[in-house]
């Protein structure tokens, strides 16, 4: 059963039988919002390039990053499946995904922050049906979903993070709007959430 997360809500990343998850997928999906007006009907929706990134932190410092130009973490535990330049057709599938092998994440990595940014510069008011979801990669079961609602004039979002808690991992939906075309632009906005 999937949990619809609201901003700031946390869930523990463990299976219903109490065992820890070993591999999760953070999926991102979106489509361009339809344009309004006469010319919009002729030209159709504008292509929007959203990018998912995972920033790995150790004691508050960046240790590694996985994004469209660096698809696999240096240790191999986090992997981006590839850059989608236009989004989906509204079918609800993941347009970009980042796979995290939690069992292989080095012990010094204590947080992984997931971000999304509009590389082409459109605001989230021009995006619809955008979501971030966490899936148990072993079973394919959706564990949690965070829906990007409300549009807005921002071009990026600090989506969620997974962080070590005791002997396991927890996920926290952050949902903080930000401005930037790349994960580097978002670092000042990420810091308060560490």
TrEMBL record:
Q: Which InterPro entries match?
A: Stress/Tellurium_Resist, TerD
Domain (TerD) spans: 1-180
Q: What is this protein called?
A: Stress protein
Cite the PANTHER family for this sequence. CAMP-BINDING PROTEIN 1-RELATED
| Pfam families (alphabetical) | TerD
């Amino acid at each position: 059963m999937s949990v619809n997360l609201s901003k700031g809500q946390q869930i523990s990343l463990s299976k219903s039988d109490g065992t820890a998850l070993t591999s999760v997928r953070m999926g991102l999906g979106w489509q361009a919002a339809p344009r309004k007006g006469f010319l919009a009907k002729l030209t159709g929706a504008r292509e929007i390039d959203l990018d998912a990134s995972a920033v790995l932190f150790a004691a508050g410092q960046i240790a590694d990053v996985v994004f469209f130009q660096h698809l696999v973490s240096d240790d191999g535990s986090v992997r981006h499946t590839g850059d989608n330049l236009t989004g989906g057709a509204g079918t609800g599938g993941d347009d970009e995904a980042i796979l995290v092998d939690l069992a292989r994440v080095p012990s010094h990595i204590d947080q992984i922050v997931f971000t999304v940014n509009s590389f082409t510069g459109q605001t989230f008011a021009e995006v619809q049906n955008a979501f971030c979801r966490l899936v148990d990669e072993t079973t394919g079961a959706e564990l949690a979903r965070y829906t990007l609602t409300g549009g807005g004039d921002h071009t990026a979002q600090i989506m969620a993070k997974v962080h070590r808690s005791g002997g396991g991992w927890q996920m926290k939906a952050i949902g903080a709007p930000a401005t930037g075309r790349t994960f580097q632009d978002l670092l000042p906005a990420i810091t308060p959430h560490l």
